[in-house]
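Format notes (please read before filing issues)

Several people have asked whether sequences and structure tokens are stored in separate files. They are not. Every record keeps both together, in the order shown below: the sequence lines, then the token lines. Line labels are part of the format and must not be stripped during preprocessing.
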Amino acid sequence: MYGGSHYIQSAAADMTDQGKAILKAAQKFGDGKTLPFAPCKKYYNPYSEPDEKGEKRKMYACRLHNEQRQKRLMKEKFKWRKGEKHLDLFWTDEEDGIKKKKKKAKTQQS
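Then the structure lines:
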């Protein structure tokens, strides 16, 4: 069972990917029962919703924590901390290519 930063192992904990991930996080970052921080319950999406120009930007965290995490990463020169997922794995060249093509087309029109 999972309730905020407190985790109680149940019979189903090793049956689902989410159960396995929660147990692994509790063991890795806490004492196996609690986490030393309250985890965010918002979902992570690698790209923002399109802005008024139809462009998306890379997201470093959920929409609530993106700015804070991006500032921290910039301050630390984009060094990932132990246990952090490298977000480059989520950002595809295809999405970046769309932006680059749009920018290239705009500069050629000027």
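For reference, the curators noted about this record: The chain has three helices and two strands. The radius of gyration is 18 Å.
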